[in-house]
UniProtKB/TrEMBL annotation:
Cell compartment(s), UniProt: Secreted
GO molecular function: cytokine activity; growth factor activity
GO CC aspect terms: extracellular space
Listed name of the protein: Myostatin
The species this protein was found in: Danaus plexippus plexippus
């Protein structure tokens, strides 16, 4: 995603999707924007603590004459406190229809403009852009895709346990990973995800995928520690992140989630 060009005095936000992503069907999509007060307006006295903030999301396209035109896709009012406006607050806006239409008839970019304004026009509000102090506050779109090829019933292999389980054998345990705790602020979304992990003992022929595993355990050659509990199947997650040029990239990262465990 890059921010450039203007439309009627507003900066346009351009989102780009890879051809592989565009081949899928959109289940739902949400635009995330960070709204905050830019500066206090002079000669305006504010006594209340709650404000109604109006948001508009428009898609910028070309009309039949080749000129830029905007189409309104979302308009809503949000209650925000003065504290929210001072420090800023993330707002999630449903843009499923807009993104789904773009996927059906894609162009080079999905260009949008966002308007934010308090209902009585007393505050100067804004949405951070590429030249802001914190690029982590730039708008981004979360897209859930529907892949019909993945609707087949999966055959589950291995066991699932919880931290309170008394199971000693090889098992899959839940593990939530928070990227912010690692200082990985270049990852926009998700901020955390369920990674899971494998742990436990591997007794005789338990969850062993190959006969070779058991034979090696019996032969006990020098340097062999016997079968160990390890991931049997991994899956990917979709992520939004900044590259070295501060472009927002949407990608699928393989091998991020443990789906099942076994002995090998």
């Amino acid at each position: 995603m890059r921010r450039h060009n203007n439309f009627k005095g507003l900066k346009m936000i351009n989102f780009r999707f890879t051809n592989k992503v565009l081949q899928n069907e959109v289940a739902e999509a949400f635009l995330n924007i960070h709204i905050q007060e830019l500066e206090a307006r002079h000669n305006v006295t504010l006594t209340e603590d709650q404000f109604n903030v109006n948001t508009q999301v428009n898609r910028v396209t070309r009309n039949s004459q080749g000129n830029k035109a905007s189409v309104l896709y979302s308009e809503r009012s949000i209650k925000m406190s003065r504290k929210d406006l001072k420090v800023g607050r993330w707002v999630k806006i449903n843009v499923t229809t807009m993104v789904a239409e773009f996927f059906r008839l894609p162009r080079e970019n999905l260009a949008i403009v966002v308007r934010v304004q308090d209902s009585k026009n007393r505050l100067s509000l804004g949405v951070p852009h590429l030249n802001s102090e914190s690029n982590a506050l730039m708008p981004y779109i979360e897209v859930s895709l529907r892949d019909n090829s993945h609707k087949r019933t999966r055959r589950m292999i291995g066991m699932d346990c919880t931290e309170n389980s008394k199971e000693a054998r090889c098992c899959r345990y839940p593990l939530s990973v928070n990227f912010e705790e690692f200082g990985w602020d270049w990852i926009i979304a998700p901020k955390q995800y369920d990674a899971n992990y494998c742990s436990g003992e591997c007794p005789y022929s338990f969850l062993q995928k190959y006969p070779h595993t058991h034979l090696v355990h019996l032969a006990a050659p020098q340097g062999s520690g016997g079968p160990c509990c390890a991931p049997r199947k991994m899956s990917s997650i979709s992520m939004l992140y900044f590259d070295h040029d501060l472009n927002i990239i949407y990608g699928t990262i393989p091998g991020m989630v443990v789906e099942s465990c076994g002995c090998s």
